[in-house]
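QA checklist item 7 of 12: single-chain prediction sanity check.
[x] sequence parsed
[x] length recorded as 354
[x] structure emitted
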Amino acid sequence: MVKMNKLPEVTSFNSDEMLCGPTRLVIVAEGFEPRSVYWTKLLHQEKYFLDAIICKYQPEKKSCLAELLPEVALRTFNAPLIVEFERVYPNKFEEQLLELFKNISKYDEVVIDISVMSKLLIIIIISVIKDYGGMVKIIYSEPETYTPSLEEYNELKDVYGKPLKLPSYGVNDVVRTPLLSSIVMQRSPSIVIAFLSLNEQLIRALLSVVNPASLFLINAISPNLLWRERAMAEIHDSIIKEYANDNPVDERGLLNKKTSTVFYQETFELLASIYNQYCYSRRIIIAPTGSKMQALACALIKVCCPDIHIEYPNPESYFISDYSSSKIRMVHEVVIPRFKNTLYDIADSYRLNG
């Protein structure tokens, strides 16, 4: 299945090409990382947006809202609207967004900065705007490094589970929302598709509430941090062996199923292939436990295939200090024109049922 030309490319964002004129809505999240405000500060100090929505996390131990709000306000005609996103109860946010976006057609463009968004938040937003006919721009600021470093990981490898230098640990709850749920094929055996991370407890928690007939694990290939592929495989070694029949490995002992952390098209391609093979015999459940751009692919495949069910294990906490570097490697952009029609064409191209 080689149809990646049907999917909009990931390109480098150029602030000089961001022109005033179109009626735009921008959606950002406050987060706790320095990159929360990086893309906004790249923009010239002009009024690019008619309206802005800032997603504020609850509960949140640390926030960049005080820095982000004035930067967004400087570039928006109307005062930014702050909407709370409760990690453990996202239904309220979903309901608010559905109400707010009833008149979304008044915007020529919707710009979404997913850089510090929860993976579930990304999927909710994309699902809420699925019938929007204008242009959607996805922004992702890729940091130079994440915690832990290779040296820190090697030091802690034998005592994995300690939260000291891991990006997240524990699981608060496994959550779902009405918009992301599906009862199609509910009586059939299920396939769970999950993504490796440095928090093995996410998938363990998922398996405690879902009893799948098959578990397909997808590893993440970071273009500039290749060592993390093996690290994540080592962390999930017991789960991979437990579901060995579903998760073949290569000659290096690493998962055959793997996709880029940045180029979402690879993830979409793989998910579409799995869907086409099993959609008539299995209930398909996706847990977006990987990278932000892998989550974007999950969001797009969910729009194309409404019968897919989404479950999300919420990390209990994050290692806030140095979670990601303040230095940004690149700001990526995905431009999706005629959003609803483009997704319809993609679904048709991949023979999905959307």
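[x] summary fact logged: The chain has a mean pLDDT of 90.
[ ] second reviewer sign-off
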